[in-house]
Amino acid sequence: MLTLFPEIEPYRSFRLPVSPLHEIHVEEAGNPDGYPVLFFHGGPGAGLSPTHRRFFDPAFYRVVLFDQRGSGKSTPLGELRDNSTWDLLDDAEQIRLKLGIEKWLVFGGSWGSTLGLAYGERYPDRTSGLILRGIFLGRPAEIAWTFGDGLRRICPDGWAEFVAGLSPRERGSTMRAYHRLLTEGDAATQRKAALAWNLWEERTSQLVPQLTPPAEEDIPGEIALARIEAHYFVNACFFGPPDQLLREIERIRHIPGFIIQGRYDMVCPAISAWDLHEAWPEAHFEIIPDAGHAATEPGIVDALVRATEEFKKTARGG
After folding, report:
1. Which residue among 193, 265, 309, 316 is the one 20 to 30 A from 80 at the CA level?
2. Hey, what CATH class is 12-139+239-317 in?
3. Is 305 helix (H, G, I), strand (E, B) or coil?
4. Would you say the pTM of this structure is higher than 0.70?
């Protein structure tokens, strides 16, 4: 079973103004002359982690990563204005143009898989391959699974804690109730709502959850994550038709692809990966039998690293 590559620091970091309001943090790691790969982190709003650099052979790949608008080291932290799916894709293009990259491999998990698909469909001529994990297609039914009458049937104890602070009426639409608390509440209200929101997701992100309270210095990022997620979800991820990513799959069917899914992924259930597989049968499709949602679970790590290693053959051939 393959494991992550050794820890590595970026060889370059810079800030890129992408709008009058937003400035994003960008990193490059690995080989400056290597094969370029774009990494989309999850969330929306989760920001980068040092682990994200370790799915790629640093001798072969030039890994480009960025904190999406309002996330991580990008500023303003937690900002919701001018923050949509299409803004994030535009930001990726600005990075590509600044770095002088013609085409790159696109890699993303969870919300990153959403962005990866959307980027590939919008810019197929700039996408040499797609490696996607924990598939989330941004459909209303997927959002309702997590914040409606789906996931609570699997984790009723966690759900009870999640909705404990809501009135009976608010529980009729928990996502909208939390969106209001996270965007209209005072600082104390936003903090409490954000911690409850993130704990609900953390409880269900791993096959065996390992819950650790966030450190005090991490609280601003926790609030930003919850605010941005609620903002995207209440706006249906800014897609038009609810199945937009599947409708436009023809634009990428010629591109080498990998779809990797944990069997017991409770956050992004396997039905979405299956729907994508049926629409895009040319892509390699793999369900990991003993994994949930997290990219750091051993079976998921093995599959993702195998995919980046397998793509080397395509890259060298091209």
Report:
1. 265
2. alpha beta
3. helix
4. yes
